[in-house]
């Protein structure tokens, strides 16, 4: 796994069993160890007699290896122990136990040596891991003798007993009961030569190795010395090398190790990944692993859980898009548009029921493309858009042309369609169309078709923006109106769709004010409607005006808006009636409604009550209604808005409870978005609002859109998650959609058995572009159908899975307690890992190791982060109701990459970078230098930036050199940091900081990250800004990462 | 003789109720097969929900008043369920979530349908019995 299985394009080749067949032959000497690796016993068995010796030799080899590859590994001895630990149970005590374990593969060789009972066990462990590790196994014999010599220092204590064997047995037996035979494991594993070897290769887990070596130095030597055979053993190694390919023994190891996380010897736990399991036939290919594992266990006699926190997998590289599918089907659309939770569709319902994670797709139809990769626009002109007659699939790279180019076969329903004469082209000798290169729709997974008039119900609408602004006294006080007016004014030039763009404004407090901005006027005219029970729209024709015609009136209005209500003392809000009025105004055209809301709606329909102040309901079954809209009015309005193609974005600013749960409904069903600025003050949050509103207004927006996703026969999309409204069972209505929205959909198999080899997915988004053209954006992807659950795990995409899980969990919080949502997450993860474990439990003896597919190594981490994310975490006191709802609404729309960033934010140390002179290249480097989110990452002499994609927190260590603080903050560097704002000062350091922050922001433009400053020890700000977000830390009743892993692991092992 | 009329009236009540429930089911089925959009479907369904509830309540009261304890007892669970939905304000179908709720809504109405058919048989049985007794 660690190796990344570059070679595995073919699913079929995968079978793990075959791979080894070859190696055994080559390796006979090795066989003892080798056998382990090779799942197949057969290969090995023949050599038994020789092999027996060999095993020893192998052990010798270990020693020998020390010389060559292993040297660093004096720990080898420990390795040997390791196997024990894992096998512990089997080894139990004597040969007999052994046999059972070994029989399959090793029997002969290992058994004979039994003198050391351990030997066999070692073998066993290896067997589990097909990888080369075996060399270590031989070591066992060695270890047995040396035991006395072992240094007690490590967790090894159990082993220390002078009599080598006796001690061993002890541990072993214990192990089974404990489940985690970790101590032994640790000993064995940590030291395991493998780990050591890997260390060089593994960049990620560098630390552990050295430790391991040091810990067991005595061992190795003894072993070496003890083994006269050592030298012979080396040769076996070489043979192993043969497996991998490279002759050098060490090299093969390295390959294995790729995946590895070397565990620190002391802790005992480590991370072993076993790349080797799937070696291809003939040993041509590098050994690759089937799964990764993590030894978990407590050291007997100590309370500490035996996990080395450093060895745990962490997504420090951010979200990684799956590549294997793209390699297999190069014409698939890019993963930024469509990601599947697994790149392999199960072939039967029974298989899919064993896949406990969501089977789903995450679609971001308008994702921003980097320069040079824009989606090509295709205009078929007179030919019309080429679609399948039966299933309405659009022509795509996977269709095949036959009958000399006169027919094409639909890849989704296999129907033969006629090629229209305008679209006809001859086929060349290979059956390709000769004009293939000029046809982007036949070579690109993503294309945009210009839709003819059949795709229009009405003339394409112009981009239309309507602003509904709260002007009650609290809104005035916060300064929101001023920022909004300025921002809109500055964006007027960049609004998409010039010269057709339309614009309109209304404001409300206890009455509703409309503005006549007819182009013939010089000044806007204000009209007040105070009849809230029967709202009407005065002058319906002049309230929405063409921006280019009325530009000067609009500008005058925006300039005067802040001063107009400057002295407003009205504290009421007729939000509901204002909403109805906006609907009436916009229903002709549709468009985008931007709501700026500050005061809890108090008049007319849709008035809301203060909710959530009764503490007794929290944690009970009555809690979840607080997260649902209180008044059905909002749902009805949302439905009406969608019907008339109006998308709603809600900007909420209140410092008090403002019922985001109800207001957010408007955005939820209209494809909009909720922006929440609690306790808005223009001096502090103005920049954020300015940026985000500007982006909202100027980003490319698709109007009056509908989206449908089609897929092959036998597969069906069953549920959809995100911000949209379903127009029919599979049609998503999206009045306004843009690049920052992603939608998730789960699929299920309709037939018990799929007969097709490949499932095709086609996302089609029919929309009106701002330029007034009706277009269809089509993304097509092919995915293989597999019969093997292991393959599904191998192709799993953590990012997509976590996106799905987060949406499901958030939806769960709307119908039950927060705790249920967390349990739901945990259960799904546990079930998935348990099923995976069952896959390998028979082949490999797993002992106390936690195993997981390499592709899902970050899943537990993200699961934990999800449980600690704002919508789901804790209880009443942890997150305010409004923030919880706002975060929930936001997370329901986030594309995969942004969500991953939010769940596992980056923490980067800046002080060294600031002090040292640096170049542009350093800027890039520092962005990749992410630290794990644990308290230990924070050094009190440092300056750190924490970035979750929505805000930055600059953390000043307590003993940070004062000149840095002074340079960055100016003279008030000693003051309380909550009152200090960061701005560029006249020195190199400050400029550098601002430059790097700017870089960060440019890499992530969908939101503006406001910079919060906090000093170490500054409570409670530090706790709530930063410490509560260190997701790996244990705090306030939540698990730390280590505890979480142990908890998950325990549940995985329960009732298998 | 009066009893016979009671059964006749209840028979028509039940037929009316059945018609209302079947109508709702048809709307839901149409929605599922995309013959109708969710807006129309939910308005149509919501229009007849309250009449259905009231009719059912009246029927129960009618049985009670006319002294047919057993039948009014049978009407009880149905009535209780309706009142519960009404009190929790979930009796109307929600246009925004209608597709997610489709299965639940259909199941609920199918249950109602079977229950009404059961009541209908009971009342027909009593009606015939009464008619025969009257005849003798």
Automatic annotation (TrEMBL), chain A:
Biased composition (Low complexity): 1-29, 162-201, 245-260
Region (Disordered): 1-284
One family name in Pfam for this protein: Sec23_BS
Zinc finger Sec23/Sec24-type domain: residues covered: 385-423
Signal peptide (UniProt feature, chain positions): none
Biased composition (Pro residues): 143-161
Keyword tags: Cytoplasm, Endoplasmic reticulum, ER-Golgi transport, Golgi apparatus, Membrane, Protein transport, Transport
Annotated Sec23/Sec24 helical domain residues: 797-901
Compositionally biased residues, Polar residues: 51-71, 225-238
Sec23/Sec24 trunk domain ranges (all copies): 460-696
Gene3D superfamilies tied to this protein: beta-sandwich domain of Sec23/24 (2.60.40.1670), Sec23/Sec24 helical domain (1.20.120.730), Severin (3.40.20.10), von Willebrand factor, type A domain (3.40.50.410), Zn-finger domain of Sec23/24 (2.30.30.380)
GO molecular function: SNARE binding; zinc ion binding
Membrane-spanning segments: none
Localization annotation: Cytoplasm; Endoplasmic reticulum membrane; Golgi apparatus membrane
Domain Sec23/Sec24 beta-sandwich: 702-786
GO BP: COPII-coated vesicle cargo loading; intracellular protein transport
Domain Gelsolin-like: 936-996
UniProt GO cellular component terms: COPII vesicle coat; endoplasmic reticulum exit site; endoplasmic reticulum membrane; Golgi membrane
Xref: PANTHER family: SEC24-RELATED PROTEIN (PTHR13803), SECRETORY 24AB, ISOFORM A (PTHR13803:SF39)
Family recorded in the similarity comment: Belongs to the SEC23/SEC24 family. SEC24 subfamily.
This protein's name: Protein transport protein Sec24-like At3g07100
Species whose genome carries this gene: Rubus argutus (Southern blackberry)
Taxonomic lineage from the root: Eukaryota, Viridiplantae, Streptophyta, Embryophyta, Tracheophyta
TrEMBL record, chain B:
Membrane topology: Multi-pass membrane protein
Alphabetical UniProt keywords: Membrane, Transmembrane, Transmembrane helix
A biological process term (GO) from this entry: vesicle-mediated transport
Main location: membrane
Subcellular location field: Membrane
The keyword Signal is assigned to this record: no
GO annotations of cellular component type: membrane
Stored Pfam families: Cornichon
Sequence intervals crossing the membrane: 53-81, 113-132
InterPro entries recorded: Cornichon (IPR003377)
Family statement: Belongs to the cornichon family.
Name this protein carries in UniProt: Protein cornichon homolog 4
Lineage: Eukaryota, Viridiplantae, Streptophyta, Embryophyta, Tracheophyta
């Amino acid at each position: 796994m660690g190796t990344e299985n570059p070679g595995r394009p073919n699913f079929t080749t995968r079978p793990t069993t075959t791979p080894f067949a070859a190696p055994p032959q080559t390796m006979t000497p090795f066989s003892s160890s080798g056998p382990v690796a090779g799942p197949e016993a057969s290969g090995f068995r023949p050599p038994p007699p020789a092999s027996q010796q060999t095993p020893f030799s192998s052990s010798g080899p270990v020693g020998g290896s020390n010389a060559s590859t292993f040297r660093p590994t004096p720990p080898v001895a420990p390795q040997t122990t390791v196997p024990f630990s894992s096998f512990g149970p089997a080894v139990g005590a004597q040969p007999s136990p052994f046999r059972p374990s070994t029989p399959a593969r090793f029997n002969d060789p290992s058994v004979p040596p039994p003198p050391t009972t351990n030997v066999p066990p070692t073998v066993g462990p290896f067997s589990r891991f097909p990888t080369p590790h075996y060399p270590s196994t031989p070591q066992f014999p060695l270890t047995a003798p040396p035991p006395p010599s072992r240094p007690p220092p490590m967790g090894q204590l159990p082993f220390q007993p002078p009599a080598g064997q006796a001690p061993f047995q002890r541990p072993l037996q214990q192990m089974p009961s404990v489940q985690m035979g970790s101590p032994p494991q640790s000993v064995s594993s940590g030291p395991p030569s493998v780990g050591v070897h890997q260390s060089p290769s593994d960049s990620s887990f560098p630390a552990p190795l050295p430790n391991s070596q040091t810990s067991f130095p005595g061992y190795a030597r003894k072993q070496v010395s003890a083994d006269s055979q050592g030298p012979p053993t080396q040769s076996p190694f070489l043979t192993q090398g043969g497996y991998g390919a490279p002759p050098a023994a060490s090299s093969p190891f390295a390959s294995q190790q790729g995946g590895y996380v070397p565990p620190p010897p002391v802790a005992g736990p480590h991370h072993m990944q076993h790349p080797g399991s799937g070696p291809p036939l003939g040993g041509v290919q590098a050994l690759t692993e089937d799964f990764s594992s993590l030894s978990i266990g407590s050291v007997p006699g100590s309370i500490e859980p035996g996990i080395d926190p450093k060895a745990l997998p962490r997504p420090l590289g951010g979200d990684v898009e799956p590549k294997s599918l793209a390699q297999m089907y190069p014409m698939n659309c890019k993963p930024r548009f469509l990601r599947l939770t697994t790149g392999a569709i199960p072939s039967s319902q029974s298989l899919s029921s064993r896949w406990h994670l969501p089977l789903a797709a995450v679609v971001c139809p308008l994702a921003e493309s980097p320069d040079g990769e824009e989606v090509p626009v295709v205009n078929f002109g007179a030919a019309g858009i080429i679609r399948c007659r039966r299933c309405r699939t659009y022509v795509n790279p996977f269709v095949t042309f036959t009958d000399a180019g006169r027919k094409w076969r639909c890849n989704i329903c296999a129907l033969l369609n006629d090629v229209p004469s305008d679209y006809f082209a001859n086929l060349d000798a290979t059956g390709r169309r000769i004009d293939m290169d000029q046809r982007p729709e036949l070579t690109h997974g993503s294309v945009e078709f210009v839709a003819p008039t059949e795709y229009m119900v009405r003339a394409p609408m112009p981009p239309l923006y309507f602003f509904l602004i709260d002007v009650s006294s609290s809104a005035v006080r916060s300064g929101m109106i001023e920022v909004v007016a300025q921002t809109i004014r500055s964006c007027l030039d960049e609004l998409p769709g010039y010269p057709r763009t339309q614009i309109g404004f209304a404001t409300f407090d206890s009455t509703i004010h409309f503005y006549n901005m007819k182009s013939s006027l010089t000044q806007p005219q204000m009209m007040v409607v105070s009849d809230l029970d029967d709202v009407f729209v005065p002058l319906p024709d002049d309230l929405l005006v063409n921006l280019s015609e009325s530009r000067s009136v609009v500008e005058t209005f925006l300039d005067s808006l802040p001063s107009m209500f400057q002295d407003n003392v009205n504290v009421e809000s007729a939000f509901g009636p204002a909403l109805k009025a906006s609907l009436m105004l916009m229903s002709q055209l549709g468009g985008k409604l931007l709501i700026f809301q500050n005061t809890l709606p108090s008049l007319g329909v849709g008035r809301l009550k203060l909710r959530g102040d009764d503490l007794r309901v929290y944690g009970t079954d009555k809690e979840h209604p607080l997260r649902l809209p209180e008044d059905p009015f909002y749902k009805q309005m949302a439905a009406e808005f969608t019907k008339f193609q109006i998308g709603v974005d809600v900007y909420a600013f209140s410092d008090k409870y403002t019922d985001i749960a109800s207001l957010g409904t408007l955005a939820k069903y209209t494809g909009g978005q909720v922006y929440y600025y609690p306790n808005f003050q223009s001096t502090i949050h103005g920049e954020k609002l300015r940026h985000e509103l500007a982006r909202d207004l100027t980003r490319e927006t698709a109007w009056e859109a509908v989206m449908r996703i089609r897929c092959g026969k036998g597969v069906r999309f069953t549920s959809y998650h995100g911000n949209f409204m379903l127009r029919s069972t599979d049609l998503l209505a999206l009045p306004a959609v843009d690049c920052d929205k992603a939608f998730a959909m789960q699929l299920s198999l309709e037939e018990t058995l799929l007969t097709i080899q490949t499932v095709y997915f086609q996302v089609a988004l029919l929309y009106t572009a701002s330029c007034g053209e009706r277009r269809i954006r089509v993304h097509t992807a092919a995915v293989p159908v597999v019969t093997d659950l292991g393959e599904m795990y191998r192709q799993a995409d953590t990012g997509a899975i976590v996106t799905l899980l987060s949406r499901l969990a958030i939806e769960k919080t709307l119908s039950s307690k927060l705790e249920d949502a967390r349990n739901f997450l945990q259960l799904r993860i546990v079930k998935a890992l348990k099923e995976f474990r069952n896959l390998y439990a028979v082949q490999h003896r797993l002992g106390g190791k936690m195993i997981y597919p390499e592709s899902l190594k970050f899943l537990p981490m993200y699961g934990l982060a999800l449980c600690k994310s704002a919508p789901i975490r804790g209880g009443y006191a942890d997150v305010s109701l409004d923030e919880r709802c706002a975060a929930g609404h936001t997370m329901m729309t986030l594309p995969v990459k942004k969500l991953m960033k939010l769940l596992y934010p980056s923490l980067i140390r800046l002080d060294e970078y600031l002090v040292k002179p640096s170049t542009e290249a350093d800027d890039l480097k520092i962005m990749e230098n992410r630290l794990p989110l644990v308290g230990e990452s924070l050094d009190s002499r440092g300056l750190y930036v924490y970035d979750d994609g929505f805000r930055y927190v600059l953390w000043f260590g307590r003993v940070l050199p004062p000149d840095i603080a002074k340079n960055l903050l100016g003279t008030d560097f000693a003051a309380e940091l909550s009152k200090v704002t960061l701005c560029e000062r006249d020195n190199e350091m400050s400029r550098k900081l601002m430059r790097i922050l700017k870089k960060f922001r440019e890499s992530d433009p969908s939101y503006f990250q406001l910079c919060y400053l906090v000093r170490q020890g500054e409570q409670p700000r530090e706790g709530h800004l930063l410490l509560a977000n260190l997701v790996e830390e244990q705090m306030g009743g939540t698990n730390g990462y280590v505890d979480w892993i142990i908890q998950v692991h325990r549940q995985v092992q329960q009732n298998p | 003789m009066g009893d016979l009329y009671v059964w006749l009236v209840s028979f028509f009540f039940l037929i009316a109720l059945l018609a209302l429930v079947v109508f709702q089911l048809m709307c839901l089925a149409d929605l599922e097969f995309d013959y109708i959009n969710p807006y129309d479907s939910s308005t149509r369904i919501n229009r007849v929900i309250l009449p259905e509830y009231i009719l059912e309540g009246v029927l129960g009261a009618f049985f009670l008043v006319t002294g047919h304890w057993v039948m009014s007892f049978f009407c009880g669970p149905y009535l209780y369920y309706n009142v519960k939905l009404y009190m929790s304000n979930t009796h109307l179908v929600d246009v925004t979530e209608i597709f997610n709720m489709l299965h639940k809504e259909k199941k609920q109405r199918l249950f109602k349908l079977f229950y009404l058919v059961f009541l209908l048989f009971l009342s027909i049985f009593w009606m015939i019995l009464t008619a025969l007794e009257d005849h003798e």
